[in-house]
Design brief:
Layout: E1 15-18, H1 22-32, E2 37-40, E3 52-55, E4 58-61, H2 64-77, E5 89-91, E6 110-111, E7 114-115, H3 123-132, H4 134-145, E8 150-153, H5 165-182, E9 185-187, H6 190-193, H7 215-227
Protein name: SGNH/GDSL hydrolase family protein
Length: about 230
Amino acid sequence: MKTPSSTTTAPARFLLLGDSHAGPIGRAAQAAGLPFEGGPLGAGREFTDEFFEPRDADVVFHAPEAERLYRGFLSGLQAPGLGAAGVPVVSTLGLSVHFVATADNWQLYRGPGGLTPGFLSSALFADIVRASVRAALAFYGHALSLGLRVLAVLPPQRVPAHADPLVFMAAQDVVRDALTGLGVEIVDLRARTTDEHGFQRPQLCEPADAIHGNLAFGRLILAELLERGL
């Protein structure tokens, strides 16, 4: 569902394109009266495979609902395509690494004592992760090629039961480094939002939910965006 924007009263400050992790960011901006356009385009699993195609100075999303929402967001900016957005793009697409970290996906690399020593820091692991999120990396690369300022927000540090926490942490760092190498700005609040084990503090978690952050988490992200000049 589209996160409501406040662009009826002032020009939008940014375009928010994401999965469900974009929801708290949009809600925080709305509560603060900060004008923006955008919101979630779908669930995180929808942005792991080939989910879009570049088209000149724009993109086309393969999922009809994502495409419909995206066109609505652009309409709010009075932009015919992504390259004409005129504001920074804030995104969570491709950063739901708990899908990559699904434990069953890594059984080949486990021995009696767990994952093969050194595997998570190996070139092979990094290659597998980058291949798993190649469509998202291509999306960010295309947005950058259009001259846009692009910021990617790391997700809440929450690992559902089906995922391996060690793979989650390591895969997230691979994706972060790949995005940084492209020129994407990374919004990484882990030092302020996690406990001594590296997991999201309870007061920043959506209750009765295994993966999402809450409004308080969204407010911290929004504050960081404002600190960066959005």
